[in-house]
Amino acid sequence: MKSARTKRSAKLLRRTKETSIRVELSVDGTGRSRVRTGIAFLDHMIESMAKHGRFDIRLTATGDLQVDTHHTNEDVGIALGTAFRQALGDKAGIRRFGDFRAPLDEALAEARVSLDLSGRGSFHLHTRAKTRWVEHPAVRSKPNAMNYTLADAKHFLESLAANMGATLHVELIAGEYPHHVIEATFKALARALDQAVTPDARTRGIPSTKGRL
Fold this sequence. Notes:
Elements: E1 9-15, E2 19-26, E3 33-36, H1 40-53, E4 56-63, H2 70-88, E5 97-104, E6 107-116, E7 122-127, H3 150-164, E8 167-172, H4 178-197
Helix pairs in contact: 1-4, 2-3
């Protein structure tokens, strides 16, 4: 358990002319998830994030996938980030900072993820890895399949961080296969976020000299 307090949770519905997204989130969960966005690889990444961060996430999205994945990918990031921000409230008593490295086979994208629930949302990508996979899809193309690239993951994380109010840094150290690089990043994000939202008995009130986050 992350906390003996009342569970931190949020429910929201986000609708635009391009997408409709429903999210139910429990920060103090057990890693259960049910995600249906119409983008199979994104579903897998959010489910991995739930599992390794011990968040309960139910998320469904419908969007204009007949156009492309851009709107749905972005808006899911916006909705999930907003849900985390709502669930965490004033962030009193949390650790605030998180840092984790997650290897996945050759992908020492030990994607190192460092984050600060600062209230100032921004995303920063640093890469020392070979760049040949940056625009390559994470899954092999199949008839009617939707490719998902590191550029798509970057856009999702930008939207997530901006709406969560998190300063999010991702460092990609090594990696050859885009699937592994992206999955390592999401696993590292999950564990770093788990650290940041965990209550600390030594933290009294809001962990900021400003008095708010």
